[in-house]
Amino acid sequence: MRPLLFTVLLLHASPALPTAIHVWTDSNGVQHFSDRPADRQASHPQALRPAPSPGPSQARSETPAQRAAAEQRRFDETLRRDAVREEQARRLRCQRLETQRELLEQRPRLRTTDAAGTHRTLAEAERQALLDDTRNQLRVSCAR
């Protein structure tokens, strides 16, 4: 009960925002604005309108240094993403080369399929050439 009573008192005690502005002109021709009507003058209330939100023409323009810094951040982020993609591609390529090396080392008789779809067994010299090439690619591309 006390929190409710406190809230009601707080809201009642806080200054209320005027819902209208009263405008009148005095005998000297000076225009007055108030949240209350004039005592002896004829005033006409005007409804308050919310302030317009800043549009593109009212938005703050960036300084050249701020634009350059933002452009540098975008460029750095692009470089970082590209580096991550390249590292992922390199790891995948190294995994495939490692699997190929293991196959060539463990199986002396490997069968391959040519472009026409014909199966044939690799000769020992072909297998050794592929194994040497695979080891070389691993040494150059996947050195740890």
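Second entry:
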Amino acid sequence: MDIIKKVMSANDKFIKNNNPIPFDKLPKWHVAIVTCMDTRLVNFLEPAMGISRGDVKMIKTAGNVVSGGLNDVIKSLMVCVYELGVKEILVVGHCHCGMEKTTSSSLSEKMKIAHITPAFIKKIIPLLKNWADNFQQPQQNVIDSVNNIKNSPYLPGNIIVHGFIIDPDTGKLELLTNNNQG
């Protein structure tokens, strides 16, 4: 079955069995979570953290990387904070992240195989190096991401940001940074 048929069939079943309950777009916990897009965290991170539908805003990105500057994650957090009432941000990384093995070289080589033009690859190599090559290990990445959020000139200086690491096999959370000062 192709993906379109699979998705549409699942949606038909969902609609038939779903009892619609309206939810507010504002997160009940006043929390945004920045986490990885890893498939092992789907339907796993939420119950491991006691999160239900409507509790938090969830932002997913490769390696839960939040670099400095005005990037898409910071822009999403700006909407969360300024428009949706978010007061705290949690960065949740995970053990055995695929970003540990991803580099600017590995990406550029695979882009060449996919027929991306060499001129375009050359143009973005500095961006790839700054992003992929700076990911050393998940714990440090969480700490760096927390610091980049805390130090962002686009977010309030008193925003509370915490950092966690989760084991994608057991669900055990470890608190890495607790910035509970307001």
